[in-house]
């Protein structure tokens, strides 16, 4: 009995090595036709327990693969629940997975999940990461992975918080450069900011584009296609989008907003003889006190 | 398109200019639309004599118009005609801008013209004789001394369309054709449409409107447009009249009523605003070119809200520009560059007309007045959003106006306000600057599964902003009245001087703000 068990185990491992892409259940069934089902079951369980074998789902069918020895050492002593949790986390890759989703995915009790996470964490196999989209939520991902942009929020986030001050500094620098140059392309702006050394953070062109777009929306600069070449070294082709100081700034004053009613938060409730009325208005009173 | 507070402001203006009873009559007309005399009496509870006087005041000051309505006979009852009255809200609101009209005419024609227009504005409608009498009384001279000068000046005003003959006192309005406008239009719009209908029924044709009175023709004013614009029919009439010119002249002077042509003033103010904008946006040369174009085509405009000017050739523009104080040194080359600049700008101030018509049309250009006005309105709104809600909100507003519809997350990313985007959006939503549209994925409208799209409805925003402006203007004038009233109660002699100083400052601030606010109202409502 024991020898047959040993033989089956060896056979399964051989088959796994022969199918480096993974051994489908169907192939396994065909190869081990003569072996009793009970024996196959026991040997598979033994292998799984010893972390020698991994099980995957590929579409509808089950696939087996042999664990390499290094990995086997890593997972030594972990329970099957731990492994289940580990695999779920592994699948989530660098976006991470939330514990509630983890529970749903693995069909385990909260306590079991927590215990498995604790185990995995203590072995430095997984790590918790805070996400920007949900501040109070922790997501887990494999220890060796770097969190994705969705999780960290990209270059504009420091410690999971949107760094408005940093954005503002970069923005001012970009604006300053464009105003000084008169006309500048996206690449010119990026180059100048990088050279200015105001930040250690690696900013990509997309991020500069984002900054320039907001400057356009703020009415500080405007886009021009082609136009005269700037004074900078690079010749400007006619298709490049360039930026220059905007000719129509958003007005800083307006007739409506220079009277108290224009910025009054309760204008809609204001009527003669009402609780709020032009006769009793305190904003008017302040305005007309010299 | 008078808004809710526009009507309120109109009634308040009438109150401060003509008193309580006239205001009552005006109010019933403004809020209820057209009414016959008995109905007005019922709503106001006034006796007929008093009511009639109030209506006369309103009509005299061009704030109301009477018109006949034909009712079709029902059954055996014969067809009958009744007279109704309608308030002219726009004209009432023009009373706010009389100071602007006076400045404009003073700069364009001169001091005497200003005095004439002032008299007309003060009295609503007057005959030439009355105008001459007023001028004589003011200058302390005899009528005969001033008559020629006044007539001369009046001729200038007339040829510039600053004054016009009054419309028919009581035009008949044919019953509405069976085709009713679609029910979707709100009731308010229906009433306003009526106002326009009555106005156009009462309005004389252009030739009649600015027809020179007989007594002026005899003066031999050659610069008058009589010769070229009067249709043949009228020429013949004129010949017939010449048989008894003297009586005709006298009748003309005594009987024909004149009034200020608000439309022309509004048109000129509109042109001024456009020219000033282009001058600051593009450059001085472009501004001068535009001014020349508008000068050359002003007479041919058919409405104060002209969409775009009539096509004009570059030669005509050149002549017109050379007549301007700033355009005397203009060369053909600079004109060409200026036009090119105006036409190539992405704002599309000017476009070339009749390109498809080939060479026959030559180089003809039109001014896209509506585009300039729309751009100005948009800039003004953006300024208001910036002042009221700050830079981030303004950025979001501009983003949505530019991109159409976006989700909250996209807005946060593109406007670079990922944290506060929700709060900022709700601020704008609360004051109706933006709208939100729910697109439900489930029939239960589960909020977490629905998509919410945010957008700017520019038309609604413009309407809202205009209403706010009327509201603010109304508040300013109410506060001014309140302050003046309060001041009368003070009789403490010690501090009287201080009080006088204070009240004069308050008056200055409030009145100046009101005039500035009215500039914006003009832009949003009349241009």
Automatic annotation (TrEMBL), chain A:
Q: Where is it localised?
A: Nucleus
Kindly indicate whether the keyword Protein biosynthesis belongs to this entry: no
The alphabetized UniProt keywords are: DNA-directed RNA polymerase, Nucleus, Transcription
Give a Pfam family name.
RNA_pol_Rpc34
The cross-references to InterPro entries, in alphabetical order and at most eight, read: RNA_pol_Rpc34, RNA_pol_Rpc34-like, WH-like_DNA-bd_sf, WH_DNA-bd_sf
Main localisation: nucleus
Please indicate if the UniProt record lists Flavoprotein as a keyword.
no
List the SUPFAM superfamilies hit by this protein, alphabetically: Winged helix' DNA-binding domain
Q: What's the superkingdom here?
A: Eukaryota
Job description of the protein:
DNA-dependent RNA polymerase catalyzes the transcription of DNA into RNA using the four ribonucleoside triphosphates as substrates. Specific peripheric component of RNA polymerase III which synthesizes small RNAs, such as 5S rRNA and tRNAs.
Per the similarity annotation, which family is this?
Answer: Belongs to the eukaryotic RPC34/RPC39 RNA polymerase subunit family.
The identity of this protein, by name, is DNA-directed RNA polymerase III subunit RPC6
UniProtKB/TrEMBL annotation, chain B:
Tell me which residues make up the RNA polymerase III subunit RPC82-related helix-turn-helix domain. Answer: 9-68
Name the Pfam families on file. Answer: HTH_9, RNA_pol_Rpc82, WHD_POLR3C
Main localisation: nucleus
* UniProt domain DNA-directed RNA polymerase III subunit RPC3 winged-helix: residue ranges: 381-456
Alphabetically list the UniProt keywords.
DNA-directed RNA polymerase, Nucleus, Transcription
Q: Where found in the cell?
A: Nucleus
InterPro entries per record: POLR3C_WHD (IPR055207), RNA_pol_III_RPC82-rel_HTH (IPR013197), RNA_pol_III_Rpc82_C (IPR008806), RPC3 (IPR039748), WH-like_DNA-bd_sf (IPR036388)
The segment(s) forming the RNA polymerase III Rpc82 C -terminal domain are: 154-375
Query: In its keyword annotation, does this UniProt entry include Nucleus?
Result: yes
**What is the annotated quaternary arrangement, including any partners?**
Component of the RNA polymerase III (Pol III) complex consisting of 17 subunits.
Instruction: Tell me its family.
Output: Belongs to the eukaryotic RPC3/POLR3C RNA polymerase subunit family.
> What does this protein do, in the record's words?
DNA-dependent RNA polymerase catalyzes the transcription of DNA into RNA using the four ribonucleoside triphosphates as substrates. Specific core component of RNA polymerase III which synthesizes small RNAs, such as 5S rRNA and tRNAs.
Q: Which PANTHER family match?
A: DNA-DIRECTED RNA POLYMERASE III SUBUNIT RPC3, RNA POLYMERASE III DNA DIRECTED -RELATED
Q: What name does UniProt use for this protein?
A: DNA-directed RNA polymerase III subunit RPC3
């Amino acid at each position: 009995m024991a020898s047959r068990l040993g033989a089956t185990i060896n056979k399964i491992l051989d088959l796994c090595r022969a199918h480096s892409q993974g051994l489908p259940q169907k192939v396994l069934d065909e190869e081990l036709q003569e072996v009793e089902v009970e024996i196959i079951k026991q040997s598979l369980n033994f292998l799984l327990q010893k972390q020698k074998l991994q099980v995957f789902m590929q579409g509808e069918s089950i696939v087996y693969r042999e664990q390499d020895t290094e990995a086997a050492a890593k997972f030594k002593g972990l329970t099957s629940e731990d492994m289940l949790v580990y695999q779920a986390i592994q699948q989530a890759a660098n976006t991470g997975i939330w514990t509630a989703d983890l529970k749903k995915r693995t069909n385990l009790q909260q306590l079991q999940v927590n215990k498995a996470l604790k185990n995995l964490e203590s072995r430095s196999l997984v790590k918790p990461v805070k996400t920007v989209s949900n501040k109070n939520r922790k997501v887990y991902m494999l220890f060796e992975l770097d969190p994705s942009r969705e999780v960290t929020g990209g270059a504009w986030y420091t410690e999971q918080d949107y760094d408005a001050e940093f954005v503002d500094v970069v923005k001012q620098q970009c604006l300053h450069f464009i105003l000084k140059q008169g006309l500048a392309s996206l690449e010119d702006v990026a180059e100048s900011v990088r050279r200015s050394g105001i930040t250690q953070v690696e900013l990509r062109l997309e991020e500069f584009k984002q900054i320039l777009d907001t400057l356009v929306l703020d009415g500080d600069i405007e886009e021009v296609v082609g136009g005269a070449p700037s004074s900078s070294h690079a010749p400007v082709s006619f298709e490049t989008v360039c930026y220059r100081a905007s000719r129509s700034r958003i007005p800083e004053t307006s007739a409506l907003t220079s009277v108290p009613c224009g910025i009054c938060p309760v204008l809609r409730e204001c009527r003669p003889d009402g609780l709020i009325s032009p006769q009793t208005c305190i904003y008017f009173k302040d305005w007309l006190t010299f | 398109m008078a808004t809710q507070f526009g009507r309120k402001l109109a009634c308040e203006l009438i109150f401060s200019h003509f008193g309580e009873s006239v205001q009552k009559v005006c109010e019933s007309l403004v809020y209820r639309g057209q009414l016959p005399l008995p109905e007005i009496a019922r709503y106001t509870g006034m006796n007929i004599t008093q009511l009639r006087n109030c209506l006369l005041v309103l009509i005299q000051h061009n704030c109301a118009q009477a018109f006949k309505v034909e009712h079709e006979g029902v059954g055996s009852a014969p067809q009958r005609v009744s007279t109704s009255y309608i308030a002219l809200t726009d004209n009432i609101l023009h009373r706010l801008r009389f100071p602007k009209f006076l400045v404009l005419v003073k700069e364009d024609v001169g001091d005497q013209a200003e005095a004439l227009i002032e008299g007309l504005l003060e009295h609503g409608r007057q005959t030439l004789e009355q105008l001459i009498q007023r001028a004589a009384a003011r200058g302390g001279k005899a009528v005969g001394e001033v008559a020629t000068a006044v007539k001369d000046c009046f001729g200038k005003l007339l040829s510039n369309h600053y004054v016009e003959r009054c419309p028919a006192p009581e035009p008949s309005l044919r019953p509405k054709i069976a085709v009713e406008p679609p029910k979707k239009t709100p009731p308010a719009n229906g009433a306003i449409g009526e106002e326009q209908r009555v106005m156009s029924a009462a309005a004389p044709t252009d030739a009649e409107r600015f027809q020179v009175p007989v007594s002026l023709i005899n003066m031999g004013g050659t610069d008058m447009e009589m010769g070229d614009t009067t249709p043949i029919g009228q020429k013949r009439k004129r010949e017939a009249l010449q048989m008894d010119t003297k009586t005709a002249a006298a009748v003309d002077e005594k009987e024909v009523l004149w009034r200020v042509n608000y439309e022309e003033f509004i048109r000129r103010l509109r042109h001024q605003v456009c020219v000033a904008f282009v001058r600051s946006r593009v450059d001085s040369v472009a501004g001068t070119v535009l001014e020349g174009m508008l000068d050359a085509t002003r007479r041919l405009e058919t409405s104060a809200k002209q969409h775009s000017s009539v096509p004009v050739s570059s030669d005509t523009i050149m002549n017109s520009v050379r007549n301007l104080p700033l355009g005397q040194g203009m060369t053909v080359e600079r004109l060409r560059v200026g036009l090119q600049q105006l036409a190539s700008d992405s704002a599309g101030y000017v476009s070339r007309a009749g390109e498809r018509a080939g060479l026959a049309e030559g180089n003809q250009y039109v001014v896209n007045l509506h585009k300039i006005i729309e751009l100005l309105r948009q800039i003004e709104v953006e300024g208001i959003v910036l002042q009221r809600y700050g830079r981030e909100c303004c950025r979001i507003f501009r983003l949505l106006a530019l991109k159409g519809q976006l989700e909250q997350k996209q807005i946060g990313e593109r406007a670079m306000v990922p944290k506060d985007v929700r709060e900022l959006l709700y601020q704008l939503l609360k004051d109706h600057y933006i709208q939100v549209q729910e697109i439900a994925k489930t029939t239960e409208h589960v909020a977490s599964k629905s998509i919410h799209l945010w957008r700017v409805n520019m038309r609604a925003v413009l309407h809202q902003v205009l209403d706010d402006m009327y509201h603010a203007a109304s508040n300013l004038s109410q506060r001014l009245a309140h302050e003046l009233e309060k001041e009368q109660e003070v009789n403490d002699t010690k501090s009287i001087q201080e009080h006088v100083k204070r009240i004069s400052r308050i008056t200055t601030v409030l009145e100046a703000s009101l005039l500035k606010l009215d500039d914006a109202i003009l832009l949003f409502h009349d241009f």
